[in-house]
Amino acid sequence: MRNIPVDISSLSFTVAGEPEPKIIDRATGEIKKDAEGRELYTIPLLPQPNDDRRNPVIMVTFPSVDFPRIPQGIQVRPVGLSAFFWQMNGRAGLGFRAEAIRPVEAARA
Fold this sequence. Notes:
mainly beta, CATH 2.40.50, 49% strand
């Protein structure tokens, strides 16, 4: 899997829903972790400008040491955003990862 950096310099991102943990096993509730042992979460983000009227929201995976409290509707900056192509069980798609999701106010500080 090759990650391709995404240039976000001309984009803004609005949180379109609550963060959710990436669950490995629904029976146990175990959360998937990255190589550094941090739990992985997904968050729906609405990039602007955006021409894709059929699917304007992107799901971004990011690590966090505890459950992220990121409210819907705020503007955020996905730090280190990258895209990757995936294939699994006859399905394929484009995924997104970020090293962190930061509120715009915190990104300026």
